[in-house]
Amino acid sequence: MKSIDVxxxxxxxxxxxxxxxxxxxxxxxxxxxLPLESDGRPPRQAGLLIRAIGARDTAIxxxxxxxxxxxxxxxxxxxxxxxxxxxxxxxxxxxxxxxARWKVAGFALSWAALCALSLHxxxx
Length: 124
Known about the structure:
Blueprint: H1 6-23, H2 26-29, H3 44-66, H4 70-94, H5 98-117
């Protein structure tokens, strides 16, 4: 029986969520307790930055999912770990709300840890 390649699954999940926040930036703005406009969407500038994060993470997630060599997939996974760790440090110290800092930083660190652990599942 073939085992599940956890790293590819996490890459696909990363890519899907990242595309989702590019389309609906409020899905990241709300957990961060960022201000929203009357229509429930973040202000234009915040939306721009959220979409940039989404584009970055989509590229990394796709690389984790489709790269054919083990070394390329390991590099992509390490990029995921590094960016999630950086996100945890930044969101965990700079968001206004203490509750949002803990929630968002905890999620980012958890995802970084899962992606680091998934390095064991990488095989060509």
